[in-house]
Amino acid sequence: MKWAVVGFLILSILHIHFRGKVRLPFGRQLFDHSSFMAPINIFMHMFSRVPSTPYIAVREFPELSVLQENWQVIREEAEHLLALKKIKAAEENNDAGFNSFFKTGWKRFYLKWYDASHPSAERLCPRTHALLQGIPSVKAAMFAELPPGAKLNPHRDPFAGSMRYHLGLATPNDDRCFIDVDGQKYSWRDGEGVIFDETYIHWAINGSDSDRVILFCDVERPMRFGWMQAVNRWLGRTMMTAAASPNESGDQTGLVSKLFRVSHVMGQYRRRYKAWNKTAYKLTKVGLIVGLAALIYYI
């Protein structure tokens, strides 16, 4: 039984690693958060009702048309937030999902995050908030800013229960500002939407001289069977709500994001240890893996 569990875990990680044309180095993949979610994601991919391709036609999600029809209304509220400097990085290292993005200037303002409460969104963006509340399949949404020169490094998102929707609001309308999903580039344009599978390796860069602001949404992945859709919905409510991060005081902070503040402090010591002696760091890393494998075997 133990070997069956270990075998399934290895199979799941290999499935994630070899999915698509672009891959992370295998050593990095082993420790990537997507590997810890691999046993769940293999089922998400297996029962998915949408094609296993990096990009999905927007027409596959007709409920999103109301967002595209109202993109100028949404842009007006986003630009109002920009003027108020409300689209910003997390101030207290309490954004577990997107903390690494802040390093190059990426910023966000949450409009919706699964079952978490964000009163600031309803107060500051009432029209956009109302539009999003009217689309149950949109589980999470935010305004996302990528300033000139900013880059998001190659990564894959950990949970395959959703698809990613980007709607261009105030973009450079320039091919130097783009996202690359599994080796295929897309350049944002004002008023245009795109959907992609964020469990493929993707990265983004703004090589233009202008800012880029988009509406960024996680849309529930359609599943082939009702029972699997219910499982997906439950996982989203429990796991993803726990990763909620606030825009300001009064917004909900999930348990995972609260714990991330502790993890962030520990990570600073880890980085110092690595800088002090890379060989010792690697040996410690291998030792922890062997120890974890032994623990799993003897439990």
Written account of the structure:
This protein is of the alpha+beta class. It has a domain at 55-256: B-lactam Antibiotic, Isopenicillin N Synthase, Chain (Jelly Rolls, Sandwich). The protein has helices spanning 2-17, 26-31, 33-36, 38-46, 65-69, 71-84, 119-124, 126-133, 226-240, 255-276, 278-298; strands at residues 55-56, 107-113, 138-146, 151-155, 162-170, 177-181, 184-187, 193-196, 202-206, 212-220. The longest helix is centred in the C-terminal third of the chain and has 22 residues, at 255-276. The radius of gyration is 20 Å and the shape is globular. The mean pLDDT is 89.
Short description:
This protein is an alpha+beta fold. The protein is 42% helix and 20% strand.
